[in-house]
Write a structure and sequence with these properties.
Number of helices: 13
Strand order of the largest sheet: 1-2-3
Strand content: 5-15%
InterPro entries: aa-tRNA-synth_I_CS, aa-tRNA-synth_Ic, Rossmann-like_a/b/a_fold, Trp-tRNA-ligase, Trp-tRNA-ligase_bac-type, Trp-tRNA_synthetase
Enzyme class: ligase
Number of strands: 5
CATH topology of the largest domain: Rossmann fold
Organism: Candidatus Terrybacteria bacterium RIFCSPHIGHO2_01_FULL_48_17
Number of domains: 2
Helix content: 55-70%
Catalytic activity: tRNA(Trp) + L-tryptophan + ATP = L-tryptophyl-tRNA(Trp) + AMP + diphosphate + H(+)
Bound molecules: adenosine-5'-tetraphosphate
Shape: globular
Pfam family, one: tRNA-synt_1b
């Protein structure tokens, strides 16, 4: 299967990005043809500091490598290095419908968030660029968190519509969801997803030092009562912490409930903090070593650019031919 997924360089990666997306990528690269990109063209749809963007993009590349993506097993590249993404996006804007784009939950949320400063057209067209990212490589599987499933459904609609109007070309890509961690919630507002653009205490960044991780988990909101039970509707905060514990420890939620049921929130949170801190400090040590090899990071992205561009140019040529543009 050909797999593709990406992350925006819009801030520091958090455990939601890791558990919902990257953890699966690391497993998938063992058996599938994988392409993983840094979607910088998506990140510019929100207010950002141009001087920081290059470093942010490199930071994500460092995170990818330190978490375990292996450039011998997958293609790692930067979206804006491949001009075919934006060219295909334009072609696909004639296939997507405005009503479909306006119905996207992420667009509605962000349009509300940025209403005062004005909503740029890129926010509305974001899912068409995402469809172009995916279809350009004739991707079959897209490992993402649950929040991206709606965008992926739209990609399938665009692929289907293109195929029936211009002739068969694109596979209809499927979402691949993590069994645990497809939707990690905010530590402060457990009914909202954990997000890198929300307040710092609401997420655990992959770069947080052990003491900060322990503190954030200690301060995470909990539900009323004292018993440890898994009940996402009745006890969303606790269930979220159980999901995180489960994903980091490899024990399932039922087993954790048996182990901690009557030991109280304090011990449960303390031990959860230790498990998360231990795994993230291994990642941080590896990342620190990689920080000293900027030429290696550049070389990985350059090799990725060349490999991705070969596929991208071929697909774009086929698309234009089918659309009568050559
Ligand atoms: N809370 C989450 N739980 C599980 N998966 C998540 N993902 C994001 N948040 C969670 C998954 O991470 C991948 C990369 O996401 P992205 O950075 O491209 O954009 P996003 O979904 O908008 O992530 P954020 O953190 O919420 O960023 P901002 O705040 O910039 O909008 C995707 O696969 C996503 O599903």
């Amino acid at each position: 299967m050909r797999i593709l997924s990406g992350i925006q360089p819009s801030g520091t990666l958090h455990i939601g990005n890791y558990l919902g997306a990257i953890k699966q990528w690391i497993e998938l690269q063992q058996e599938h043809e994988c392409l993983f990109l840094i979607v910088d063209l998506h990140a510019i749809t929100e207010p950002y500091e141009p001087k920081e963007m290059q470093q942010r993009t490199k930071n994500i590349a460092l995170d990818y490598l330190a978490l375990g993506l292996d450039p011998k097993r997958c293609t790692l590249f930067v979206q804006s290095h491949i001009p075919e993404h934006t060219e295909l996006m334009w072609l696909l804007t004639t296939v997507a419908q405005i009503g479909e784009l306006e119905r996207m939950t992420q667009y509605k949320d962000k349009a509300q968030q940025f209403a005062k400063q004005g909503v740029n057209a890129g926010l509305l067209l974001y899912p068409v660029l995402m469809a172009a990212d995916i279809l350009l490589y004739k991707t079959e599987g897209v490992p993402v968190g649950e929040d991206q499933v709606q965008h992926l459904e739209l990609t399938r609609t665009i692929a289907k519509r293109f195929n029936s109007r211009f002739g068969n070309l694109f596979p209809e890509p499927k979402a691949i969801l993590a069994q645990q961690g497809a939707r990690i919630m905010s530590l402060k507002e457990p009914t909202k997803k954990m997000s890198k653009s929300h307040v710092e205490d609401s997420y655990i960044a992959l770069s947080d030092v052990p003491d900060l991780i322990r503190k954030k988990i200690k301060r995470a909101v909990t539900d009323s009562g004292t018993e440890i039970v898994y009940d996402p509707n009745g006890k969303p905060a606790l269930s979220n912490l159980l999901t995180i514990f489960s994903a980091f420890s490899g024990k399932d939620a039922k087993e954790l409930v048996r182990e901690y049921r009557s030991r109280g929130y304090d011990i449960f949170k303390k031990e959860l903090g230790e498990v998360v801190a231990r795994e993230l400090s291994l990642f941080q040590q590896k990342r620190k070593r990689l920080e000293n090899t900027p030429e290696y990071i550049d070389a990985v992205l350059e090799t990725g650019r060349n490999a991705a561009r070969n596929i991208a140019q071929k697909t774009l040529h086929e698309v234009k031919e089918k659309m009568g543009l050559i």
